[in-house]
Structures are given as C-alpha cells and as structure tokens.
Amino acid sequence: MAVGAEFSIGAVVVNYNQRLLTEACVAALLRSDYPRLAVVLVDNGSTDGSGDYLRGRFPSLQVLETRRNLGFAGGSNVGLKYLLEGHVDLIFLLNNDTEVAPDCASHLANAALEHPDMAVFAPKIVYYDRPQVLWYAGGNIRLHRPQGASHFGFGNPDAGQFDFQRRVTFVSGCAMAVRRCALERIGLFDEGFFAYCEDLDWCVRAGRLGYRALYVPTARVCHRVSMTVLASPKGERLGAYLLARNRFMVQRRYGSLASAVALVPLYLASKPAQRAFAALVRGRPQGSVALLRGIGDGLRQRLGDPPADWL
C-alpha cells in the first residue's frame, strides 16, 4: 500500500461525445495501484450514447449526466460538487484526453502527505504520442505574456532536467490534484469561461488566498493534446474564440484595462492567432473572425456560453 493511502482520492473526468477517448482515460485510472481511488465521470450532455456505453464498460463507475453541454468548467464543477458532498480528502481533475501512469495517484497522495503546507499538486504531463517530450513540467502565472502562464519544459525532451519537486503558481486543469479543504475555500471554476483559462483564473484566486502548489514529477500523465474542443468539426472557430475571449477576460479581471489593451498586439502574434490566420490564408476565415470577436468580448468582460451553433 502506498505511504499516502490514508488519503481518499476522488477523480473527475468530463466527457462530451468522445466515449472511446474517455474509455481509455477511465481504464487507466482504474488500473491505478492506489487503493483508495474513486472515479466520477460527468457525461456532459453527450448525444452519442456515451453515458450508457461507459456504464456498461465500467459497471462500478459513478456516472453523472447533465442535460446539456456545460463546457469543461461547468462539467467539472458537477463532478467537483458531487465529491465535495462525500468524504474524499484529495480531488484529482483530469481531461478525458489523458492517461495516468499506474502509480500517478500514489505519488500525488504521498506528496500531499509529505507536504501539508501545499494545497495543489501538479503531475508531470507528456505528449501521448511522444512520451519522451514534455508538455508541462510545472508552470507559473505570467499575466504579461500572451498565454497568461508558462509551462516549464514545453516541447523539450524529457531528459530528467525537471525531475525535482518545486513550488509553482500555475497548475494546468488538464491534470491537477487539490485538497478538499482548499477547494472548499477557493471555490469551483467560473462556469462563464466554458472552456480554456478557467484553470488560470482559478490559480490566480488560489494564490491570492495564500494557497501554494507543488509540482510532483514522479506523478506522470500522458496527454493527447487538443483532442477535445479543437478536434471537433467546429472546433477551429470555437477554440479561437474561447482562447481569446477568456485570456482577455482574465487580464481584465486581475489587471488594468491598459494592460489588457497592451496585450492585444502580443496576442495577435501568438500561436492561437497564427493558427487562425493560417486558416484564413487557406480560405477558412471563421477562426480569424472568431478570434477577433473573442478579443472584443474579453475586453468588454462578456462571459457565458458561446453561440449554440458553434458547439
């Protein structure tokens, strides 16, 4: 039994019309060597029969169903609220396009046991199809930069250069563990973000309340990057809009209007904008139009669900 097995862990996974991807994610969690791990699946208004399929595939799985697509933020909150009504000590939030190593939960629990002063725990995240390449090895909030936060080691070979625990200020919502007592005080995700930057907003709130986060490199997660929103037929437009709107919303919320305006040219030179403009050159203007609309809505602090026909 793992040293930290005195902690009960509840994992939350959100699914929207991606039952096979989610099946792999849940199967990896259930292969965990941690004895006190429960998995909650939120089927986020799927129309492909995901809920029934996954219930049949995993009879012991707790499946919560929403009546509509609440986005990653809203869907995650459904699972988080459910776990907060129970008796779990540590809550582990995962994207459904991830797969955890069998000992990932054990390492996170051990870190929580060894570092009672830390509230949030971040695993190492690598690319699923290139597991020798880093996607996240810790990170810090950087509101003066286009993305709003840094990912240490992003795109670099995993040669052990980040294999040490360190304090961080940004933990990706792709894979994060948080103590129940901290989540109760920090609060849930702001559902107005729908998807993207809800984790950045949450981390800013956590830091302002004095909570600290720890990067735990021995806890390992593989990530099929952008297999959710950006992989859908309408995802190019939806992703461009949400990334832009939510990034500028965070800037307005925690910075000045002047800092948000100053961010515009930097953001227009960033990778999300480059993807949208490249599509424009290929005759697909929807992404560029959505990105500019997102910047405007973010500057005006307009949150909420994106247009229904974009989902």
What can you see in these coordinates?
- The protein is of the alpha/beta class and 311 residues long.
- It has two domains: 9-223, Alpha-Beta Complex (Spore Coat Polysaccharide Biosynthesis Protein SpsA, Chain A); 232-310, no CATH class.
- Helix content is 39%, strand content 19%.
- It has ten helices and twelve strands.
- The chain has helices at 19-30, 50-57, 71-84, 104-114, 180-186, 198-208, 235-254, 257-268, 271-281, 286-299; strands at 9-15, 37-43, 62-65, 90-94, 98-100, 120-127, 134-136, 141-142, 148-149, 166-168, 175-179, 213-223.
- The strands form two sheets. Strands 1, 2, 3, 4, 5, 6, 7, 10, 11 and 12 form a ten-stranded mixed β-sheet that branches.
- The longest helix is centred in the last third of the chain and has 20 residues, at 235-254.
- The protein is globular.
- The mean pLDDT is 93.
One letter per element, helices H and strands E, the order comes to EHEHEHEEHEEEEEEHHEHHHH
Largest sheet: 10 strands, mixed
Uncertain segments of ≥5 residues (pLDDT<50)?
none
Shape: globular
Mean pLDDT: 93
Indicate the radius of gyration in whole angstroms.
19 Å
Helicity range of the residues? 25-40%
Supply the number of structural domains: 2
**Class computed from helices, strands and strand pairing:** alpha/beta
Number of strands: 12
CATH topology of the largest domain: Spore Coat Polysaccharide Biosynthesis Protein SpsA, Chain A
Report the CATH C-level class of the largest domain: Alpha Beta
| Level-2 CATH architecture of the largest domain | Alpha-Beta Complex
Separation of termini? Answer: 44 Å
- What is the count of helical runs? 10
Which band does the percent of strand residues land in? 15-25%
